[in-house]
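[step 3/7] inverse_fold.run input=structure_tokens len=278
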């Protein structure tokens, strides 16, 4: 596991340096970075095959989430290998970007770290609750987006094909041209980011915006409280299991010592019975 982590760190360092222009213009860097990329892909590919053959049910292993992520992060390296690549990322730019999925391999540490496994269990346990909360928030956000669309658009300019609105008596092109623009605004507002690139100016639009901001507070509070509560429960269960395990080990050690003393005592009595004059 330590060697795999070192290989992953090597890939990440080269991958990050490969985004810097001063490195990409060097004559030997593209070939070097592509070779490092291919070498790490070969290593992780061999590791994937070994896991595949060692798994009790190989066919089932292919469809496991971590197995699919490992496969998707390795295959693009073979498909896009080009040692002559220079200042361009090539046609398969997004396919090459999939290689960054290798960073998710760090989650395999959970197989060896009990503490990280507690976090993984917490996220799994919280998934259903978070999905329910997100479903409610999505419904509210969609409602707010439709209300925002009708609040900010007054009429459609047939000549330009754009929705218009009045801003302090001045007619201007509305930034909320369709519901998809409103969805972008709603997502930015609900997540409390608030870029400010799309802003309502009508009274009703500002009322809808205020209500959406209030929903943004619940967006942050509910998932955080769910995860924190489940994490506290899982951590308490982990410590309880750890104490029980330590107690079992102590009882086993005490029992082994008792059996050892009993064996020594029996051996001493047998020797004494065999030689009463000793």
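[step 3/7] decode complete -> sequence:
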């Amino acid at each position: 596991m330590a060697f795999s982590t070192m290989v992953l760190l090597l890939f990440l360092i080269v991958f990050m340096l490969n985004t810097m222009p001063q490195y990409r213009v060097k004559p030997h860097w593209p070939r070097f970075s592509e070779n490092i990329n291919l070498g790490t892909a070969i290593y992780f590919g061999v590791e994937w095959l070994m896991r595949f053959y060692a798994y009790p049910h190989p066919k089932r292993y292919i469809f496991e989430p971590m197995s699919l992520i490992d496969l998707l992060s390795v295959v693009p390296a073979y498909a896009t290998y080009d040692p002559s690549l220079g200042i361009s990322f090539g046609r398969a730019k997004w396919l090459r970007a999939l290689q960054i999925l290798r960073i998710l391999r760090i989650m395999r540490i959970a197989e060896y770290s009990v503490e990280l496994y507690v976090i993984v269990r917490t996220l799994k346990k919280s998934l259903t609750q978070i999905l329910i909360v997100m479903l409610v928030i999505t419904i509210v956000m969609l409602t707010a987006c439709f209300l925002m669309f009708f609040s900010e658009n007054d009429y459609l300019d047939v000549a330009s094909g754009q929705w218009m609105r009045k801003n302090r008596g001045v007619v201007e092109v509305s930034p909320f041209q369709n519901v998809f623009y409103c969805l972008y605004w709603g997502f930015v507002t609900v997540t409390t980011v608030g870029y400010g690139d799309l802003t309502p100016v009508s009274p009703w639009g500002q009322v809808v915006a205020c209500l959406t901001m209030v929903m943004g507070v619940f967006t942050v509070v509910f998932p955080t409280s769910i995860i924190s509560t489940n994490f506290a429960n899982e951590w308490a269960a982990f410590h309880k299991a750890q104490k029980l395990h330590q107690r079992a080990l102590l009882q086993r050690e005490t029992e082994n010592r008792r059996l050892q003393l009993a064996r020594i005592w029996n051996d001493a009595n047998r020797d004494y019975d065999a030689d009463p004059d000793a």
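[step 4/7] annotate
The first helix runs from residue 2 to 17.
The first strand starts at residue 155 and ends at 157.
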